[in-house]
Description:
Strand order of the largest sheet: 2-3-4-1-7-5-6
Distance between the termini: 37 Å
Number of strands: 13
Radius of gyration: 29 Å
Strand content: 5-15%
Amino acid sequence: xxxxxxxxxxxxxxxxxxxxxxxxxxxxxMRSGGSGSFVLATLAAISSCFLASSTAATQRRRRRQIDRxxxxxxxxxxxxxxxxxLDTDQTTTTVTTTTLLRSSPAAIAAYVVSPTTIAxxxxxxxxxxxxxxxxxxxxxxLELNLGGSAMEPPCLHQxxxxxxxxxxxxxxxxxxxxxxxxxxxxxxxxKRSGNDLxxxxxxxxxxxxxxIRPPPPLRPFPVAGIAIPVLGHAYLSLMGSYSIxxxxxxxxxxxPSGKYAYGATARLKKSxxxxxxxxxxxxxxxxxxxxxxxxxxxxxxKARQRADHSDVIxxxxxxxxxxxxxxxxxxxxxxxxxxxxxxxxxxxxxxxxWNRPNQLNLQRFTENGLFTSSENSEDWKTAHALLPRAxxxxxxxxxxxxxxxxxxxxxxxxxxQLVRALHDIEEGGTGDGTGNASFYIDNVPEFLTAxxxxxxxxxxxxxxxxxxxxxxxxxxxxxxxxxxxxGMGYCSGLLNPASEYGIKSMIPFSxxxxxxxxxxxxxxxRELEGMVEDMVESARASTDDAAKHSVMxxxxxxxxxxxxxxxxxxxxFGHVMNLMIAGHxxxxxxxxxxxxxxxxxPIVEARCLEEARRVLNGKTTLDAKDIxxxxxxxxxxxxxxxxxxxxxxxxxxxxxxxxxxxxxVFQGERVSVxxxxxxxxxxxxxxxxxDPLSFNPDRFHPDAVAARHPNAYHPWGFGSRxxxxxxxxxxxxxxxxxLMLVHFKWIGKPGYRLMxxxxxxxxx
Length: 764
């Protein structure tokens, strides 16, 4: 139950009272007779007792955890929120719900608390004076321009602490803040209930604080309806027609109609803990995490269970941190571009951490790569300074010939099938029934992933896998791709004994069990590691100019400007696997969606084809300088990427107790941007374009893009974690679609309904 102070508590007495209300109804059931009624009544009684006892146990655990929580405050500065009351003739019309401030590096944001009150969040360095804090608040008010330019902002001379207790109403101290009192306020918070937000609250006034009325406490984001015991809100991921949970959650919480029952940001209770144990007892913030990952890599089956039911601390937090229960039990989901804007602007407060159970499992395969690592790790800092150089505009032009050549190979393979269809007509066949040559392709994902894998591997590592030729000849993919897909599928949970061994996995002592699959995974990873080592040695020995400037050569030759370090030799494998994740499956999946959507929309197809022919201007292939001219084809690809983003969520963690969009968030909480929800929010994607679920490339006309919220579209991620290969993917997609359109007409299968799924790979 959420109380007026915004805290969520579990009350055993209320649970018992509810159980008691059920008992009379059970008696009436039993009086109606029948053994079935007796069984039903017995089950109801047991369930009621279990609910009461489990609720009481949960309440005790939460209280113990809250009592132990003493941290939450940032180490380098005071987290302060200053409440400023405005006169009745001043309005907050110039302040949006969240206004990010630029007047001072310490003043972070201003939030509207009520029509006459705003809250200013300040990161006040501990070495700075109180006078500097007051000046910072006044600068923020001046920047907000309250009441218009003709009015002066409130002149602040004093700040007064606000005290909140469990047993008394909140009060404003009569003693104003002086030097040294901020430390005392922080110490007071540490000794207070761990259920409180560890933020110093101050009230601003031009005179004494006697007339100040304390504002209501900051509230959390609303909980999205009823949470079922044990399951939490997991049922929202099952209610719907999609096989991908995030799509169902988006449809239920953030429907395209825009009728958000709980607003554009809401909390869900998880069905299993994300940070269980909630204590970092290690000597450093990664000790227990490192120990677990080492055990996982060694094939310890119990270690995998520990990761699934994680009793490890989320890395990236100070030693011996005890988190608030909400950090364990809830996740915050958003479809709000304003929240994304704040997450983007406050990177240090909301870092990208790779530390949850499912992420640890995936890291068994991908190691500490650029995508699958926390941004505070040395491996990430080094790679992030080096790898983007390989995908800048100049380097992409150098890759152009390889990308276009790979598209040509793709066209050759499909043309061969078309020739076979023509031959069938000549031999008396009917083709598609109309006398036209046609062929049906049911392995489009395999062809597309083969092409994108060939392109990224040859451009990055100088190795031609020839997967497109292999698929066209009916042969299996290159071992590098085959083993990669197996490792990704296994560690992401898509592969299991039942999916790999079928009915054999159900036979006891058959040997077709989880241990056998684990052994297969370890063997596959060892083989992949050997292939990557060969790539490294080949790049070292090569005298070719292209090889000297390859991604591989950059990793073991160049030093990162941020750290002065080279990529660790052990880390190269992880970065190669990460490039495979980001560089081929995501692009291939979006190309498949784009092709199907073009086939379903003849007008879009005609415009794309006209543009491709105009840019080619009689040529048989494209040049690097032609690709920027394919603007409408780029709009088409971006629109498909909006509707079916391969990356279904973008996450950030709360580094310390703070405020987000005017709501309180505790240290360790996870904030997740659902791309499906963000990209179908009618506030940004409806209006003149109609249903946000409709396919309309004009949404990405330059004028429409300029008029839209800049953070309404993030299929590539955002901030420092944005995809480094986005321009490479766009170049590849535009050249592929243009050349394919002038060679083939795509016709969708009658009755086919496009649905995102993980059946063909780890990208939806």
